[in-house]
Amino acid sequence: MDAIRAAAGAGFRAVGLRFDIEPPGPVELRELPRLLDAEGCSVLDVEVVRLSPAWSEDLERRLIDQAAAVGARHLLVVSDDPDRSRTIDGLRRVSRRCREAGLSAVLEFMRFTHPATLAEAALVAAEVGPDLGGLLVDALHLARSGSPPTELAGHAPQLFPYAQLCDAPPTAPANDLASLIDEARHRRLLPGQGGLPLVELLAALPAEAPLSIEVQSDALEQTLDAGERALRCRAAAMALLG
84 φ, ψ to 5°? Predict the structure, then answer.
């Protein structure tokens, strides 16, 4: 609830919600659409289906139902399963269920997931088929996986329904997966405060693709409340957009 108010107060027209770790109860799930309407916000995406051999399809169904209940456009999917065929089968299942519920499943790639790169993710998407809503390009993960923004031009624009912006130093703190995970979850920078090729990424993305600001930062969380963090994220993004 507080995240929605903070985002709306900063001028954002949509929010992303995390339902896998702290799922909303029945009362909150009924109240969320009313709050979103009152604040003039919609839900861009809900996180996260995390495919693995231990993944629960009961949790998957719950996440899809909850995402549909709040009118989310997308349900974010990542795969921790190194078995490519299982990942594809899982994506087909999630994508089909999402389509039936009125939203789309979107696959995010990262150096520490499967697939790990844009090229690998695009091949997986082609095998999954049209039920998959596309790929989520995160500025940090694109850079750390070794792909320049120009690589997006080799794919159909509709493969990228939205994107996530943040910033970071131009080179990774270290090349091991533990360091990459730590950076992604704790040490992101506001857009324009690092050295990622964000201008080039914006130029490569479809003009109509919504931009989500994802700045997971322990430093910002420890010093600023949610409202101020949202204000700074929007100000940084608007400065980048010119």
Answer: -60, -40
Contacts of 51 (CB under 8 A, 6+ apart): 77, 78, 79, 80, 81, 86, 87, 90, 91, 94
What pLDDT was estimated at residue 161?
98
Q: Closest Cα to residue 76, out of 31, 113, 40, 111?
A: 113
Residue 82: Cβ-neighbour burial (10 angstroms; 0-12, 13-18, 19+): exposed
Residue among 97, 112, 107 at smallest CA distance from 67? 97
Per the structure, how many domains does the chain have? 1
Give the CATH number of the domain where residue 136 resides: 3.20.20.150
Which residue is associated with the tokens 């920078």?
189
The rounded distance, in Å, linking the Cα atoms of 216 and 231 is 15
pLDDT digits (tens, 9 = 90+) for 106-124: 999 999 999 999 999 999 9
Maximal C-alpha separation, the chain = 46
Using the predicted structure, report yes or no on whether residue 1 has a pLDDT greater than 90.
no
Amino acid in the structure at residue 241: L
Report yes or no: 138 and 214 within 8 Å, Cβ to Cβ: yes
- The domain in which residue 31 lies consists of 2-241
pTM: 0.96
Write out the H or E segment, with its range, that includes residue 48: strand 42-51
